[in-house]
Amino acid sequence: MKKLFLLAVVGMLLLSACGAVADDASHTDGEGVEAHDFWARAALKDGTSAAYMLLHNHGTEDDALIGASSDVAASVEIHLSKMNADGTMEMIPQESVALPADGEVELKPGSYHVMFVGLTKDLNVGDEITLTLDFEYAEDVTLTIPVMDAADMGGSGMDGHNTMP
Ligand SMILES: [Cu+2]
């Protein structure tokens, strides 16, 4: 009479990605930046995609995300999505994202994100991609990021990632 609901278990596993602490001996406190809850949006080769995450600066001094790199795209940029008065969404390239001491910043649809421009391959749901984050003080953090369906993650596609160059 027992029934197993394996699909539910698989779903929970996909949502459990977390971790990747970087220590930085050269910085004053050396506690680094930690990334949580990271995921990337499914998209097609030659198109664009984006990665989202929660960044936690465990240090006692301000830091900043100043760049990112990955082999899945020709270029990787930091963007901020902003809603214009006429209701259109605009993406503004950012030099950096400030990470206040002992604070958290969420990269999410409609806000800050890591943008992949010129995908070198399809990003299918269930794939994993490698992304390295560069910080002003903390050491680089390399993440293995699961590719998700944005519709399942509360992202409606409003960033325009499927249409903008
Ligand atoms: Cu963007």
Give the number of domains: 1
Proportion in β-strands: over 45%
**Element order, helices and strands?**
HEEEEEEEEEEE
| First and last CA, distance | 53 Å
Shape: globular
The CATH class turns out to be Mainly Beta
CATH architecture: Sandwich
- The percent range for helix content is under 10%
CATH superfamily: PCu(A)C copper chaperone
Can you tell me the residue ranges where pLDDT is under 50 for at least 5 consecutive residues? 1-30, 157-165
Rg value? 17 Å
What's the main sheet like? 11 strands, mixed
- Give the integer mean of the pLDDT values: 82
Q: Short description, anyone?
A:
With 165 residues, this protein is mainly beta.
What features would you highlight for this structure?
eleven-stranded mixed sheet, binds copper (II) ion, globular, mainly beta, Immunoglobulin-like, 165 residues, 47% strand
Write a structural description.
- With 165 residues, this protein is mainly β.
- The protein has one domain: Immunoglobulin-like (Sandwich), CATH 2.60.40.
- Helices cover 5% and strands 47% of the residues.
- The chain has one helix at residues 6-14, and strands at residues 18-21, 33-41, 48-57, 63-69, 73-83, 89-93, 97-99, 104-107, 112-119, 128-135, 141-148.
- Strands 1, 2, 3, 4, 5, 6, 7, 8, 9, 10 and 11 form an eleven-stranded mixed beta sheet that branches.
- The longest helix has 9 residues, at 6-14.
- It is globular, with a radius of gyration of 17 Å.
- Residues 50, 79, 91, 113, 115, 159 line the site of copper (II) ion.
